[in-house]
Amino acid sequence: MDNLDEKYKSKNPFTVPDRYFDTLGDRVMDRIKDEEGDIRKTSLFQTLKPYLGLAGLFAFAMIVMQVLLPNLVDENRMLLENGEQANTTAQTEDENIFDADFNPSREEIIEYLSQETDPIEFLYAERR
Amino acid sequence: MNEISDEDIVKMFHSGNGEEKAFRLLVGKYSERLYWHIRKIVIGHEDSDDVLQNTFVKIWKGLREFRYEAKLFTWMYRVATNEAINFLSEKRRKTYGNSQEITPSLENQLESDSFFCGDSIQRELQKAVLKLPERQRLVFNMKYFDDMKYEDIAEVLDVTVGTLKATYHNAVKKIEESLKISDTLPSFE
């Protein structure tokens, strides 16, 4: 009777490529060094990440201020100047609505208010 | 030349300036035994190589905290076993979405493995082992092929020796049934 215990235990049916075990130590150490290098890089980045974020935000804010602020100031100045000019013009126009010698009497005003006609037309019609 | 002891390797590793040298000694001392253990679980050489390298990376990281709560060798065996089992679970999830057994895939791999040089009976024996439930398969491999003591296997798998003996007995019976040559397999026990 075959002694299968000896026959199948003693002979390993699996094989490996030539010199597989000779080079294993180097490959394992390379892999460990790679992984530890990655961890160091990652942890340095993780440590600096909040500060980098803040610095980035600050830089962005500075750039935005540098670019937009002068334009805003100019625009405001222009608006202000235009506004003053517009006010002056409007005031002048308002003053020109009436003739200097147009001075309606009390009766004319009451009559105007009691009629439903176009006020300007009425007033000028009266004068004509 | 006397082989350096596990204790001396661990001391050298912990000494601070001999980490790499100590680790290379450890790889040289145990890589073959761990490889063959992994190979019988995951079958393919490429997969075994991946799992073995992952195992040694974990051992490198764990060795810094290793304080002999278990024997160094059984601890390394446990790391290798867990890595191999996790690898198979991940492979099953990727291939079948966890819905099927991984055994047919491993049997196919065994059939097409260019690094398998056994005869037809050895191939059938390996296939019969692959059909065992995972725990029985691990116990059978460690006891039958790796010739480990029950006490060491118990430490690796974290079970009692009594449970292991029963598990091994059941595994042997299933293999004998699977091979249908139980009368020619008298010395498994």
3D structure, described in words:
The complex is a heterodimer of chains A (128) and B (189). With 128 residues, chain A is mainly alpha-helical. Chain A is built from four helices and no strands. With 189 residues, chain B is mainly α. Chain B contains nine helices and no strands. Chain B has helices spanning 6-14, 19-42, 45-63, 72-96, 103-112, 120-130, 134-145, 150-157, 161-179. The interface between A and B is medium-sized, with 25 and 37 residues.
Key descriptive features of the protein:
heterodimer, A: 128 residues, mainly alpha, 2 domains, 4 helices, B: 189 residues, Rna Polymerase Sigma Factor, Chain: A, Arc Repressor Mutant, subunit A, 72% helix
Helices and strands, with pairings:
The complex is a heterodimer of chains A (128) and B (189).
Chain A: H1 4-10, H2 20-97, H3 106-114, H4 119-127
Chain B: H1 6-14, H2 19-42, H3 45-63, H4 72-96, H5 103-112, H6 120-130, H7 134-145, H8 150-157, H9 161-179
Helix pairs in contact in B: 1-2, 2-3, 2-4, 3-4, 4-8, 5-6, 6-9, 7-9
Give a short synopsis of this structure.
Chain A has 128 residues and is mostly helical. Chain A is built from 4 helices and no strands. Chain B folds into 2 domains: 1-101, Orthogonal Bundle (Rna Polymerase Sigma Factor, Chain: A); 118-189, Arc Repressor Mutant, subunit A.
Percentage of residues assigned to helices of chain B: over 70%
Shape of chain B from CA axes?
Answer: globular
Number of helices of chain B: 9
Annotated CATH architecture of the largest domain in chain B:
Orthogonal Bundle
